[in-house]
Design brief:
The complex is a heterodimer of chains A (about 325) and B (about 290). Chain A is an all-alpha fold. Chain A has one domain (about 1-330). In chain A, about 75% of the residues lie in helices and about 0% in strands. Chain A contains 15 helices and two strands. Chain A has helices at about 1-5, 10-30, 35-60, 65-85, 90-110, 115-135, 165-190, 190-200, 205-210, 215-240, 245, 250-265, 270-290, 300-315, 320-325, and strands at about 145-150, 240. Chain A is globular, with a radius of gyration of 20 Å. With about 290 residues, chain B is mainly alpha-helical. Chain B has eleven helices and two strands; from the N terminus they run H-H-H-H-E-E-H-H-H-H-H-H-H. Chain B has a two-stranded antiparallel sheet. In chain B, helix 1 (about 5-35) packs across helix 9 (about 220-235) and helix 2 (about 45-60) packs across helix 3 (about 65-90). Chain B is globular, with a radius of gyration of 19 Å. Classes of the chains: A mainly alpha (about 325), B mainly alpha (about 290).
Chain lengths: ~325, ~290
Amino acid sequence: MIRHLLDGVPRRGIALLLVLLAILLAAPYLVGGYVLSVLFLILYFAYVGQAWNIMMGFAGQLSLGHSLYVGLGAYAAAALYVHFGISPWIGLGASIIISGFAGAVIGFLAFRFGVSGVYFAILTIAFAEFARIGFDHFAWVSGSSGLFLPVENYTENDFWNLRGSPAMFYYLMLAMTVAAFLLCHLLLKSRVGYYWLAIRESPEAAQALGINIFKYKMYAVVLSAAMTSLAGVVFAFYYNNLFPEQIFHISRSIELILGPIIGGVGTLVGPLVGAFLLTALAEGLRELMLQIGVEVPGVKQVFYGFCLLWVVMFLPDGVWPPLARLLGLHKTERED
Amino acid sequence: MGLPIEIYLNVAASGLLTGLVYGLMALGLSVIFGVVRVVNFAHGEMMTVGMYVAILAFATLGIDPLVMMVPIAAVLFVFGYLLQTGLINPFINRPEHSQFMLLVAVALILVNLQLIVFGPDSQGVRTSYSFDSYAIGPLIIDASKVYAALAAVAVAAALFAFFRFTLLGKAIRACADNYHGALVVGLNVKHLYALTFGLGTACVGAAGAMLVAITDVTPTIGPAYTLLAFVIVITGGLGSMPGALLGGVLIGVTEALGGLLFTPSAKSMFAFGILVLVLLFRPQGILGRKLS
């Protein structure tokens, strides 16, 4: 198992990852609350970016509606907790089932009828928007006035109900990010992973070789949706409030895919690098604006827009591939 | 339902008129996609630019939005032309998702620049005829909607005529039919692509000037209009110019009736419902050619 995991990964890459992991594990003891919250955000975006990357980076299906799965996951677990006191560890089952089902419906509609490429992307946005408006009128989860989780002052962490300190959420998110990283690493070396890459590169050729492209595209959508929904569960219990207008909004979907695109679509490390760069830069910008004393909404997004524009124009493969060459790690990446 | 039939008729007629303006907006998207094969993800954002310019002109100089339509279309034409030559032409042979992300970036920048410049509050135009209406039999129709719809039909007709009868229009259609063939016969394809992109953005700018007399605008509504334009184009049929207008009318009427029967804030759910139905039963769209 371990040997299979390490197969073909340069020593230096493993060493760097272990150092990074050690730093991240020690972080709550070293930094203050604010930096920890930024690190949490970085891990959050790294995780959802990794989940999105399965669909786009591996199987080549562009989804611009991933906020749908975040939102469904968040609402399912939060509503079960608020209404029935059901632990999120049980509720996440509902999140996975509902999000996976939503992904399956979208995938079925699209892949059965030859909707692909950009039109597939539009279909995913349409479903996210559909959910946003639907949840606005969904009385059981309080519609547009928002769903709030009860908050008290916790003296100790209640891990079973995910009530507690930011450090607890940080470690949870770190564990999820590491798990997603390892899962994607293994997937890329598996039969399914190779099928996905084949479908990404040329659906026609893949089909001609006897790969059931409908089936494997469906696997990618459902797995990606289910993984993304878990991030939604953590989001709900970390922020304790949910508004359809925010969680399902298209800007959330775009925010979520910026990390892997800037880091490098289809690479394992890309989502991590992208999430780190983008979140760190955005927070830096926020600090800078706070220092100058201007507060204009939208500046962060304009900045995101220019970052995206720059990367799409000048680094079409993302930041990671050239960075990997610089670090002498290029063999690990983009196994195609 | 207990409402009298006149109310349904009135709402449907009003939806039809708004739908024609939607149709013009979608026509811009359809023309760009049909020729340049690039999906303009910043379409709705460009329309809100047109809407804001119309509002500014009306508030400061008192110019009617339907008059401002011409300069707005001209400005957006130049913008579209420059966008195509500067940013998109180098991307013509790049993968589809790469082009798409380029325009996502443009959309992100446009929408938030508008948020910074115009603020988050909704704005609109109240012309002298804002509250006028025509009574035709049992129907009572807003004058501003009639004018906007007439303008939309006029612009669409001009565009049809341009593509059918002028040499330039024929050259553009040649590029759409066969990219390499157009190159071989010596057409300046990049210039023609830029012209087409400019025509598409001019359409959406004009549609914005018309729409501002009908409804208010906020900066963040842009993505919703982009999506609406896509829904209309897919419903009507990709690359079909009459399909875009027909799709616009269909979606306009459906949204209006849906808003009446349920709640206005849920009206766009009906547009998505139609999208799903079309994708299920007629994926090439109502007037579209069979998907290959």
